[in-house]
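Postdoc handover notes: sequence design on the structure in folder B. Input tokens:
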């Protein structure tokens, strides 16, 4: 069995990440996250708040850049902030072995959601079919507003 595969946060960006150490929050956020998003992730404990350097600015490292990319990618894949907090950062691990279990768990949850949605799909299709085939002129036919519920009507047509 081959060894663990090293991860890059986004395809094609690994080469450009090497010269980005010492980033300010604005430069870190310039990758598309936004300064307020970076600060939000820090308040949630997902991204470390670095100490201020001699310049007076907080300087973010390559590890911070990797972590931010991981957070953003995990959000797009449907991970909750709590689940992302459990994912290892680049300092802890950078191999697929540490991502496989949470990804498998998420895949299982998505599969369950798909099964639940499929169970709802059939009955909804039947409702649409029945409603589309009510003969014109019959109560409840498409376009027939007799007896239609109005907002605040408690199930009965309101009288004016």
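Designed sequence:
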């Amino acid at each position: 069995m081959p060894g663990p595969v090293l991860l890059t946060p986004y395809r094609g960006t690994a080469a450009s990440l090497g010269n980005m150490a010492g980033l300010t929050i604005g430069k870190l956020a310039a990758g598309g996250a936004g300064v307020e998003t970076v600060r939000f992730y820090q308040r949630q404990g997902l991204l470390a708040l670095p100490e201020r350097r001699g310049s007076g600015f907080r300087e973010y490292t390559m590890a911070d850049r990797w972590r931010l990319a991981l957070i953003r990618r995990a959000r797009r894949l449907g991970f909750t902030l709590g689940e992302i907090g459990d994912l290892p950062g680049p300092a802890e691990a950078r191999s697929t072995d540490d991502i496989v279990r949470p990804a498998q768990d998420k895949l299982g949850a998505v599969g369950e959601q798909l099964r639940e949605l499929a169970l709802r799909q059939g009955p909804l299709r039947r409702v649409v079919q029945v409603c589309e085939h009510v003969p014109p002129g019959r109560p409840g036919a498409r376009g027939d507003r007799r007896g239609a519920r109005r907002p605040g009507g408690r199930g009965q047509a309101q009288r004016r």
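Context for whoever picks this up: The helical segments are 14-17, 25-29, 35-43, 62-76, 81-86, 97-132. Don't rerun without checking with the PI first.
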